[in-house]
Amino acid sequence: MTAFAIAKASLLRVARDRTALFFLIALPIFVIVIIGATVRGFSTFSVGVVDLGSGRSGSDLVAAMRHSGDFKLREYGSVASATKAVARAEVSAALILPAGMDATLRSGRTADLGILAEQTNSTQQAASSAVHSVVASQASRIQAALFASEHQAGSYDQNLARATSLQTRMALVQVSTVQVDSRSNTLPEGFSYSAPTMLVLFVFINTLAGAANIVETRRLGMYERMSAAPVRARDIVAGETLSLLTFSLLQAALIVAVGAIGFGVSWGDPLAAVVLIAVWALVAAGVGMLAGTLFRTPEQASVLGPTLGILLGMLGGCMWPLSVVNSAVRSIGHATPHAWAVDAWTALIARGANLGGIATDLAALAGFAAVLMVAATVRLRRQLT
Amino acid sequence: MAASLVIARKDLRQRLRDRSALTIGLIAPVAIAALMSLAFRGADTFHYTLGVVDADHGPVAAGLLQALQQPSLRHVVTVRIIPTEADAARQVKGKEVAAALVIPAGFSNAASGTAQTSLRTLSSVNNTIAASVTESIASSFVAQINADRLSVATAIAAGAPSSAVPDLTAAASKLQLPEQLTQRPLGAHAVKAISYMAPAMAIFFLFFTISFTARSFFVDRTQGMIERMRAAPIRPLEILLGKALSVFVFGVASLTAIAVITSAVFGADWGSPLAAGTVCLAMVIAVVCLTALVIGLARTQRQAEGIASAVIFVLALLGGNFIFISVAPSIMRRIALFTPNGWALRAFTDLSTTGGGMGAVVVPVLAILGFSSVVGAGAVLLARRAVTS
Questions:
Q1: Are strands A93-97 and A45-51 parallel, antiparallel or unpaired?
Q2: Fewer CB atoms inside 10 Å of the end CB: C or N, chain A?
Q3: CA distance A220 to chain B (A)
Q4: Tell me: domain B48-172, CATH 2.60.200, correct?
Q5: Looking at beta carbons, which residues of chain B come within 8 Å of A70?
Q6: A118 touches chain B (CB under 8 A)
Q7: pLDDT in tens, B57-87
Q8: A:23-52 residues touching chain B, CB 8 A cutoff
């Protein structure tokens, strides 16, 4: 009972603090929107195109590139702006359609298309090869139209239409893709990536920053005064833990709701998701309690807490999928509880796993929670008695 | 002026005695930038191993293998020959190769005739880029074969007699695709993770100075320090100037130290020192103005901390300090240019890629100073209240 009273007092204190509410509610949602809008670049290239007045064949090529699905297309007005965009990595390469390209092609000459990319930059080369294949496909049609006009009747335009229609129907040498596995190791892109990872990140950061309250209470000698009343040390520990746990759960519930309703995130198997959130809230509460006994001033907690939280979040795959970093850093990442939590969310969201499918991750997280809780309890009790 | 200097010196001394100043001003940004550079070492370039199963051993297959090993692709793909398709599938699944290309038996024969035939790419759901690059290379290779077939078919469709097929085929085989791609070098370096993240983290942690200074101002006020200062012949603006000066010195020292360490130890490219220094100075001025505005807006220490936190995180998120802003959608890149840090990061990106000296940073610096003057004007309007109330 005493523990509940302590928890209630701590909860009310945070609820009245507008700064805490900003971090608790507004910031996570804001970040989900931003990261969700950004994390889309891991499986496709962006390619730029500059049309210097190429005519019909140029606009046909742009349309073909738009439909290819191999890359996202961005149009630029000048070679200079496209060069800047490639340099800034806004696009991985840029295609330049020369002036008079259509006339050149119609007259049977070869059109020289430029592609902005560095020979030594492999990303730019890979994007160039994607562009090359679309250009080659269009060039096939034009070659056929010219050839037919030269050897037989019909205008260039009529034969181009014939070639375009034949290209989709006739027996050609195809390149097909067979997917050999279906076990995705990364979360889907967009909000389905940002919502679960930011849940992991923010629940953790908030309890770390929330340790400031425990430090302040400790510094003001409140715990000693409580101990003077018939309140046992373990009730104080339980009360503070309960308050951190409640906040973590409330925040997680809010992010789940906003993700599902606002951004259409599917959180996977409900039972497994609830258990995962509960275990993660325990980890977060544990770290908050431990931080509360380790930090010396509230300022330390509110400055170092978020910094540490961001650092661990980066290591643990909250800011980018761990599959894009090198293997050593990926292994180091699993020293943080974040990586296990993100792995579990990946299994639930990307692979439709159930409770059994995330058992290992849950066990690892429960281990983290237990170690943190025990360490925090031992330290706080020692400080209280 | 002398009074401002004294206040600045006292604030700085107080700041440096607190160990968290060192953490925020130097250790944390360097550590995070280093971590990111470590994480993305080798990951900011694209290279993969492609398994090739050659069940054909014909001339067309040999041509394809040669195309895969052409000089322009040397940095992109390494070819590994695998005996069977089953082996290749297993290696793709086991991530030993990123993707595989299967050249089926009889491919050379089929490709030289008119029958339908196909090359197969084996891909993994976890490496869609490798699969799509392989598909692109293979498609480009077969494009000429297909173009020749299409040429004959189009001529027939346009009315040529079937008896002309052998002649048409012979004529078509001499054709070359009428569109050629020529590589045009950019004369720019690629953005390295550390060259973006070092300034991004330096600026993010520089923002924390807003919170620290605003907090210390209100602590001073609660303790009656400001009133005592005002009892002396010091004008309110001098008090604010002193605070601003301490922020300025701390900010410049922090950014300089981070730039020197990340350049020397982690190979970050901050560009020409003069240009980078100018952007840093402009950025510190923006932080000074923001600090003044927060002090002007808040009435209590609690409020100051709250407003400062909101300012820090909103600016850092919108400006691109946490994410690589270049890959963000264009609307977000446009929004970033409403923040001083967004302009600073754009300047640092340009400096490390296209190089250039002061010319490259004129617009960003003017934009940051413009932002600062708007914020500063607001702060001056509110300043009197903060010091006198």
A1: parallel
A2: N
A3: 17
A4: no
A5: 132, 135-136
A6: yes
A7: 988 889 888 888 888 788 888 999 999 999 9
A8: 23, 27, 30-31, 34-35, 37-38, 40-41, 43-46
Measured between CA atoms, the residue of chain A closest to residue B141 is A133
Tokens of B345: 């990061």
Using the beta-carbon criterion (under 8 Å), do A89 and B327 form an inter-chain contact? yes
For residue B307, pLDDT over 80 is answered with yes
pLDDT at B14: 82
Best A61, A133, A160, A213 member to test B by mutation, with max B CBs in 10 Å, is A133
Residue-wise pLDDT for B217-267, tens only, equals 888 888 887 778 778 887 777 887 888 899 899 999 999 999 999 999 888
- pLDDT on residue B45: 66
Distance from CA of A11 to the nearest CA of B (A): 18
Give the global pTM: 0.78
Output phi, psi for A116, to 5 deg: -85, 110
Enumerate the domain spans of chain B.
2-41+194-388, 48-172
Chain A residues whose beta carbon lies within 8 Å of the beta carbon of residue B179: 105, 110-111, 113, 135-136, 138-139, 142
Q: What residue ranges define each of the domains in chain A, with the CATH number in brackets?
A: 2-39+189-384 (no CATH), 45-169 (3.40.1710.10)
- Which ipTM was obtained for this model? 0.73
The b/e string for A346-364 (b: 16+ C-beta within 10 A; e otherwise) is bbbbbeebeeebbeebbeb
Nearest beta carbon to residue A174 from set B118, B122, B310: B118
Closest in A153, A171, A179 to B123, CB measured = A179
* Chain A residues whose beta carbon lies within 8 Å of the beta carbon of residue B69: none
Average pLDDT over residues B101-106: 91
CA distance B375 to chain A (A): 22
**Are B47 and A122 an interchain contact pair (Cβ–Cβ within 8 Å)?**
yes
- In B, minimum Cα distance to A32 occurs at B317
pLDDT of residue A371: 95
pLDDT for residue A30: 80
Pick A51 or A12 by higher pLDDT: A51
Instruction: Please name the helix (run of DSSP H) or strand (run of DSSP E) that holds residue A284, with its range, or none.
Output: helix A270-294
Distance CA B365, CA B363 (A): 6
pLDDT at B287 over 90: yes
Q: Regarding predicted confidence, which is higher, B310 or B249?
A: B249
Q: Is the dihedral of CA B341, A204, A15, B212 positive or negative?
A: negative
What is d(CA B82, CA B84) in angstroms, rounded to the nearest whole number?
A: 6
Chain B CA closest to residue A175: B119
What is the token pair recorded at A278? 């509960």
pLDDT at A40 over 60: no
In angstroms, what separates the C-alpha of A26 from chain B's closest C-alpha?
10
Given a cut of 80, whether residue A140 has pLDDT beyond it is yes
Residue in B75, B119, B328 nearest the CB of A125 = B75
Q: Among the listed ranges A210-214, B319-323, B372-376, which one has the minimum average pLDDT value?
A: A210-214
